[in-house]
Amino acid sequence: MTQTNRRWTWMVYMAGDNGKVFEQLQGGKQLIAPMEEQGYQDIREMEAVGSTDEVAILVQFDTLSDRDHTYRIYIRPQGEQRVVENISEQNMGDPGSLRDFIVWGIENYPAQYYAVILWNHGTGWKEDDIYAFARNRGFRLGASDDEVRSLSRNTRLSSAFFLSSILEVMQSEDGESRAIAFDDSSLDFLDNTKLQQAFRQAEEQTGQKVSLIGMDACLMSMVEVAYQLRANANYMVGSQEVEPLSGWPYTAILGGLTSDAGMTPEALATLIVQEYGRYYEEDSRGSLPQITQSATNLMVVEKLVEAVGRLASVLRQLLAEKDFYLEKALSYAKRQVVRFKDKDCVDLYDFMKLIRDEYVGDSTELTTVLDEVMDLITPEMEPRLVVANVTSGLRFSRVKGLSIYAPYKRYSPFYDRSDFASCGWGKLVRGW
After folding, report:
1. CA distances from 212 to 113, 114, 217, 264, 288 (A)
2. In the prediction, which pLDDT does 17 show?
3. Structure confidence at residue 156 (pLDDT)
């Protein structure tokens, strides 16, 4: 098989080493719901389609039950037995593990395009270290014993990439949420810098850039995440809200891809979003599911960040001047904006529109830059920033595909680590 014959290599980085009971917590508790069984289910969904001459389907699967090995899997054509390679136990929170998996996929299954899917739990840009208590033999994140409780087996709030506000995560009781990829055995996860590093090093080693990064995880469709990954891929797909435990419908997505392997990266990003929405609408049993999923063009995100930076500057200046009309509009917007399971995450478009509609002051500079930010998010803008967006449920009817950090109670010191914060948004939200 030559590179020109294969159109796509689809790689799923499946961090399923979750569900460990930590004896350091009173009575012995799980921080993260077990994900291993869901991993096997998703592999079965991929096997229902199988690889073709034009599409290779690969998985790296780390589990809690096997402490000696991690599995690299080539999912062969439909009906044929999967090819499993046992490698040494991997710390899925180590950027070297992700880098090596990407390099392995590119070198052994070369293609025109590459999609890398980060599977498990996710929490947007946040990087709070939930494993600090285990290293220090005591819980040091400010939570009381009753707040540090085991998550439901139906809750997908563990992970290895971006770690969320632990109290928000642990107080979730809906039983139908999930996040991105923590490694319980290694007490590690991938933060923004390590994730960026893994993709950069894989590209340096292979000379190949990933076309699409997928986040089969919670809360990852944020401008902060998109900006962090802007140089590592062309498109990003993820959810603004927490995802249901079953995550992406792999059979439908890969069925569409193998049926039309000639599709572009933008077309595949759009397909994932569409199939995700269709799957949960059909599975809703009469009630509208509360879901979001969107695809972002990372090649356009810098233009948005420039505009948000100008907006932050104008807002800070007007607030320093005690513009009463802005203070009133901003207060209203913070109360009324669509917030997600992590209340620090708000829909960017909705937030801008609420400020714009409520502001009756005389700053034309403010209204102009608010309009500019909103215009960049709308689907009519070319080139499009949000190339596909699906939502369901009344509370998400105003959601447009990208979230932004707007602290509900207090500013997180971890925010300053993100590339995006330096555009001026960090200084703005720290002060309000």
Report:
1. 8, 7, 15, 10, 29
2. 62
3. 39
Domain ranges of the chain: 8-299, 302-383+403-431
Instruction: Give the separation between CA 270 and CA 265, rounded to whole angstroms.
Output: 9
Quote the pLDDT of residue 280: 92
Q: Which CATH number fits domain 8-299: 3.30.450.20, 3.40.640.10, 3.40.50.11970, 3.40.50.300?
A: 3.40.50.11970
CA distance 346 to 360: 23
Report whether 387 contacts 268 (CB < 8 A): no
| Cβ 47 vs Cβ 75: under 8 Å | yes
What pLDDT is recorded for position 91?
82
What does each C-alpha distance from 347 to 80, 127, 390, 391, 397 come to in angstroms? Answer: 44, 20, 13, 12, 11
Contact 178, 157 (CB under 8 A): yes
252-269 CB burial, b ≥16 within 10 A, e <16: bbbbbbbeebebebbbbb
- 58: phi then psi, degrees, rounded to nearest 5: -125, 150
The model's pLDDT over 247-262, given as tens digits with 9 standing for 90+, comes to 999 999 999 999 999 9
pTM metric for this prediction: 0.85
Question: Are 291 and 376 a contacting pair, CB within 8 Å?
Answer: no
Nearest-angstrom CA–CA distance, 225 and 405: 11
Residue 81 is predicted with a pLDDT of: 85
Extended beta strands in 64-174, E state: 69-75, 83-88, 113-119
Structure token pair of residue 288: 């509208």
How confident is the model at residue 287, as a pLDDT? 73
Q: Show the tokens assigned to 129.
A: 């270290």
Q: Which segments of the chain have a pLDDT < 70?
A: 1-4, 16-34, 64-66, 121-189, 284-286
Question: Distance (Å, rounded) from C-alpha 297 to C-alpha 318?
Answer: 32
Look-up of token digits 């890398």: 116
> Using an 8 Å Cβ cutoff, are 217 and 182 in contact?
no
